[in-house]
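Design job #97: recover the sequence.
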C-alpha cells in the first residue's frame, strides 16, 4: 500500500457522488426547461444573406428555481471528499517527514501570504521544502481553483454557493422561424438549452470535474515525495 491510498479513496468517493449527481442535474434541467415558454416579437435578422423581418424568440418562465436538496447534498459530498483527500496528503507527508504521528495537520487554503504564515501551525512536522510547495499552490499565487474548493467547503458559505440557478438560452433556428411564420406549433422544450450553474455562473458538473482533476494532480505531484523513506 502507498501512503496516499486513503487520499485516492476519497477521490473515488468524489467520483461516485458526482456520478450520482449527474442524472439529478439533467433531470432538474428538464424540469426547468418544461417551465419555459417562448414569446415572439418581430425583428430584423439576416436570413440567407438578406435582411428579413422575422419572429424572434424570448425565453420566459422559471429561471432561478431552487435546486432539489439532494443536489446540494451531493455537491457537498463531492467537495468534502476532495478537501479530505488534501488534508490526508498533508497528514501523511508530515508523518513521513518526522517518522512519527503528527496530529492537527490541515491543507491550508488562504488568500494572502500573511494568512499563510499565520496558518503554518497546520503544517507542523513538514520539511521546509514541502511547506514552500504547498504555498506555491495557494490562490494568491494564481491557483484560483483551489480557492473555489475552499469556498464551496466553507460551512458558512456552503448553502449559498451550492444553490444552483438555471439560466435559459433559447436557440432559434430556421425550422422554428419557418414554423412560426406558417403559424405552426413549436415544441419549445426542444429549443430551450438549460444549464445548471453555481452562483458564479459556472456549470455545476464542469466545475466539480475540474476540482476532482485538480485534486488528483496535486496528489500525483506529491506522490514521489514518499519514496526512499
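Job complete. Output follows.
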Amino acid at each position: 500500500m502507498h501512503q496516499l491510498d486513503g487520499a485516492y479513496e476519497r477521490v473515488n468517493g468524489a467520483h461516485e457522488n458526482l456520478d450520482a449527481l449527474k442524472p439529478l442535474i439533467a433531470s432538474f434541467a428538464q424540469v426547468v426547461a418544461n417551465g419555459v415558454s417562448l414569446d415572439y416579437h418581430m425583428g430584423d435578422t439576416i436570413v440567407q444573406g438578406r435582411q428579413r423581418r422575422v419572429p424572434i424568440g424570448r425565453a420566459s418562465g422559471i429561471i432561478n428555481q431552487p435546486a432539489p436538496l439532494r443536489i446540494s447534498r451531493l455537491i457537498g459530498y463531492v467537495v468534502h471528499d476532495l478537501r479530505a483527500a488534501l488534508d490526508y496528503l498533508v497528514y501523511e507527508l508530515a508523518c513521513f517527514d518526522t517518522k512519527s504521528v503528527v496530529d492537527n495537520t490541515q491543507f491550508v487554503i488562504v488568500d494572502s501570504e500573511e494568512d499563510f504564515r499565520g496558518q503554518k501551525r497546520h503544517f507542523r512536522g513538514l520539511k521546509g521544502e514541502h511547506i514552500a510547495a504547498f504555498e506555491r499552490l495557494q490562490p494568491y499565487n494564481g491557483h484560483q481553483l483551489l480557492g473555489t474548493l475552499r469556498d464551496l467547503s466553507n460551512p458558512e458559505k456552503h448553502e449559498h454557493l451550492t444553490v444552483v440557478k438555471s439560466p435559459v438560452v433559447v436557440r432559434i433556428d430556421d425550422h422554428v422561424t419557418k414554423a412560426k411564420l406558417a403559424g405552426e406549433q413549436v415544441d419549445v422544450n426542444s429549443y430551450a438549452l438549460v444549464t445548471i450553474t453555481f452562483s458564479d455562473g459556472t456549470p455545476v458538473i464542469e466545475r466539480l470535474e475540474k476540482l476532482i482533476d485538480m485534486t488528483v494532480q496535486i496528489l500525483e505531484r506529491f506522490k514521489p515525495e514518499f519514496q526512499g523513506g
